[in-house]
Specification:
single chain; mainly alpha
Length: about 290
């Protein structure tokens, strides 16, 4: 694995939680409820918050951008989320929610020269990305940059994680893993329990059929566990994902990236200390082995 690709993976571990707190913090949930979203499920607010940079997207556009969600699940929420609040209102609300979240988590530490420096480094990395084939990254880059440094840091982390995520979908397509197969193959290597993928909306029959297709390719065994070929393919996906995510970190450089990680560590630590993120997620940050 190339040095810049390893750096891309390390920085993903550092910045993903900084962004992802949006989907779990009480402040963000309360803000979504005030907009009128049904909070008995996390998905209406999730689809609103994450899709809003794309504008008033329809079901097909959202399905394409998300890839691994079943079309039926996407259509259940999109475009209905825009009947509750416009994308513009959702974007204002999510930034206010992140502001409240980090002020609650960090108190006075939310501001200061270290946060300003972190925001400048993260913004430099985010603005260096090329956006061809990266709809989520491009949509977030088109948004105005927040003035306050802690919000600019969050916005940059969002651009960078969406840039990586868009590349990950390209890697899955290159491996000829369709949306449901992508999840089945990920569960098959033990990245997360099968039950954790239920929210993506695939039926038991669709999951079983995807498993059969993977078995026919020799990627999973009779018990649905990954074969050696299956693990090699997932390693290939992870390696390509890291390679495709390397651009901003190659340009920022190892030293400045390390400085960013150091400066952003209070944000990362505060999220974990508060226990806001699920212990087991479908991201596989703690479980996916790094390919050599």
């Amino acid at each position: 694995m190339r040095a810049e690709s390893k750096l891309a993976r390390r920085m993903w571990h550092q910045l993903e939680p900084v962004h992802a707190v949006l989907y779990f913090s009480p402040q963000a949930n309360d803000a979504a409820a005030e907009l009128g979203y049904d909070m008995t499920s996390r998905w209406p607010s999730y689809f609103a918050y994450r899709t809003a940079p794309l504008g008033a997207a329809g079901a097909r556009l959202a399905t394409a951008a998300y890839y691994s969600f079943s079309p039926a699940t996407v259509a259940e929420h999109v475009p209905a989320v825009w009947d509750v609040a416009s994308p513009e209102k959702v974007l204002r609300t999510r930034l206010e929610a992140i502001d409240q979240t980090y002020r609650h988590l960090l108190g006075d530490r939310v501001a200061g020269p270290d946060v300003t420096e972190a925001a400048e480094l993260a913004r430099r990395a985010a603005q260096s990305v090329t956006v061809g084939g990266r709809p989520f990254a491009a949509a977030n880059l088109d948004l105005p940059w927040p003035d306050e440094p802690h919000l600019a840091l969050w916005h940059a982390a969002t651009v960078l994680r969406e840039h990586r995520g868009d590349g990950h979908l390209a890697a899955l397509a290159a491996a000829e893993l369709d949306p449901c197969e992508a999840l089945v193959s990920f569960a098959a290597i033990g990245a997360a329990p099968v039950a954790n993928f239920a929210g993506r909306g695939w039926s038991e029959q669709e999951w079983a059929e995807a498993t059969e297709r993977l078995a026919a390719r020799g990627l999973v065994d009779a018990a649905g566990q990954a074969t050696e070929r299956g693990r090699e393919l997932r390693d290939q996906v992870e390696r390509m994902t890291d390679d495709l995510a390397a651009e901003p970190w190659r340009l920022l450089g190892e030293e400045r990236a390390g400085r960013l990680a150091q400066l952003a560590s209070p944000f990362l630590g505060a999220v974990f200390e508060a226990g806001l993120l699920p212990m087991t997620s479908t991201l596989g940050i703690a479980t996916v082995r790094v390919p050599d």
